[in-house]
From TrEMBL:
Leader sequence residues: 1-22
Protein name in the entry: Acid phosphatase
Region (Disordered): 325-351
Gene3D superfamilies: HAD superfamily/HAD-like
Length: 351
C-alpha cells in the first residue's frame, strides 16, 4: 500500500501520457501540483453544481416550521468544515487513483481492497484481481450525494426516520440532492484512467430506475443496474449488509478503492451483532484496518444518521473522564466584577 502512495506522485506523468490528452492534463496537473482544489475545472464543476441546485423550482414551504435545524445537519450540509473533510477524502482518493493507474500502466500487480469471505479484520485476506478490469466502488447516500430534500423534510417535521417516507424519496426525490464536494473530480479522474465507477447502495433494487436517473441527473452516471449499480435485493441481499454485493462486484472487477460514510460500506465485519461503540472504534483502528484508511478505503463524514450514532453516557464519556465544575462562589465569598460598559460580549471559543 505504501508503494502505491509513493508511486502516485512519482509516476503521475507516466499515467497521463496517452490518456485523453485534451482533458486529463488539466485534472492531473492540479493533482501533481497540489493545486487540485483551486483547479479551474474543479471550481467550475462546483459552481455548476451550486447553480443547478439554485435553479431548482422552489416547492411550497410545508408548515409548521420548526425553529431550528439539527446541529448535525448544519454541520454536514452547510459547514465549510464538512466541505474541507469531503475534499480531504476525495482529493486523497483522486491522488490514490493516479497512483493505481500508474501501477496498472507499468504492469505492477494491483490488489483488491475487498475482504474475502472468511477473512477477519485481524487477519485480512483480499479477493484476487487477476485479469479483471479495475473499478472503484462508492456508496450513494451521504457519500456520492447529500439528500437535501429528504433531510430538509425531516428537519421541518422533527420526526424520526420513517422507512415509507424514505422509499417515497427514493422514487421521487431525484433532483433535490447535491453532489458531495470533490466527487465529480474523482469520477473524472477514474473514467479518464479507465477505472469503472460502481455504486453499491442500500437503496432498494425495485427503485433502480429512479436511482439511476438521479445519478445521471447530477452527472455521476450513466450506470447499469447489476453491473455498475448494485442495490438492496441484488446478489441475494435482503438487508443492509453489503458484503454479498461487494463479492458479486469483485467477481467481475478488480476493486481498487471503496468510499463510504459508514463502516459497513467497507466490510460487514464492523457490524457484528452486539458490537458496542468501543468495539467498533477498536476495529476501525486495528493494525491492518489502519493501513486501509486513505489507501484503498476512503471515509466521508456523516453525523446525521447511521450505525455510528449509538452509545449511552458511559459509552461516549468513559467514567474515568468524569469532571464537574468548581462550585460557583457565593456573593459573600468573592465579589463578582461588574461588566465594563462598552466591553464586547463574551463569545464561545471555536474548538
Ligand atoms: Mg451512505
Amino acid at each position: 500500500m505504501m508503494r502505491r502512495a509513493t508511486l502516485a506522485l512519482a509516476t503521475a506523468a507516466l499515467v497521463l501520457q496517452g490518456c485523453a490528452a485534451a482533458a486529463i492534463p488539466v485534472v492531473a496537473g492540479g493533482l501533481v501540483g497540489r493545486k487540485t482544489v483551486s483547479d479551474r475545472n474543479a471550481r467550475k464543476a462546483r459552481k455548476a453544481e451550486a447553480a443547478r441546485i439554485r435553479s431548482l423550482p422552489a416547492a411550497p414551504m410545508p408548515a409548521p416550521m420548526l425553529p431550528g435545524v439539527p446541529p448535525a445537519m448544519q454541520y454536514l450540509y452547510a459547514s465549510g468544515e464538512a466541505v474541507a473533510l469531503d475534499l480531504q477524502a476525495y482529493m486523497g482518493l483522486a491522488n490514490y487513483l493516479v497512483g493505481i493507474s500508474a501501477d496498472l500502466r507499468i504492469g505492477h500487480d494491483v490488489d483488491s481492497v475487498v475482504l474475502a469471505p472468511g477473512a477477519t479484520l485481524e487477519q485480512p485476506k483480499f479477493l484476487p484481481c487477476a485479469g479483471k478490469p479495475p473499478a472503484i466502488v462508492f456508496d450513494i447516500d451521504e457519500t456520492a450525494i447529500h439528500n437535501l430534500g429528504f433531510e430538509g423534510d425531516a428537519a421541518r417535521r422533527g420526526e424520526a426516520y420513517d422507512a415509507q417516507r424514505w422509499a417515497d424519496w427514493e422514487r421521487t426525490g431525484t433532483r433535490q440532492v447535491a453532489v458531495v464536494p470533490g466527487l465529480t473530480e474523482v469520477i473524472r479522474v477514474a473514467r479518464l484512467a479507465k477505472i469503472a465507477v460502481v455504486f453499491n447502495s442500500n437503496r432498494l433494487a425495485e427503485n433502480a430506475d429512479a436511482t439511476a436517473a438521479m445519478l445521471d441527473g447530477v452527472g455521476l452516471g450513466p450506470v447499469v443496474h447489476g453491473d455498475t449499480l448494485w442495490l438492496q435485493g441484488d446478489a441475494g441481499s435482503t438487508d443492509s449488509r453489503k458484503d454479498g454485493r461487494r463479492w458479486a462486484i469483485a467477481a467481475k472487477y478488480c476493486v481498487v478503492a471503496m468510499s463510504g460514510d459508514q463502516l459497513g460500506d467497507f466490510s460487514d465485519l464492523f457490524n457484528a451483532p452486539g458490537a458496542t461503540p468501543a468495539a467498533r472504534r477498536e476495529a476501525a483502528a486495528g493494525l491492518h484496518t489502519t493501513l486501509m484508511w486513505g489507501h484503498g478505503w476512503f471515509m466521508l463524514p456523516n453525523p446525521v444518521y447511521g450505525t455510528g450514532l449509538r452509545g449511552g453516557m458511559d459509552d461516549v464519556f468513559p467514567p474515568a473522564t468524569r469532571w464537574t465544575p468548581t462550585p460557583t462562589p457565593t456573593p459573600n465569598s468573592t465579589p463578582i466584577a461588574a461588566p465594563i460598559a462598552g466591553a464586547p460580549a463574551p463569545v464561545a471559543k471555536e474548538k
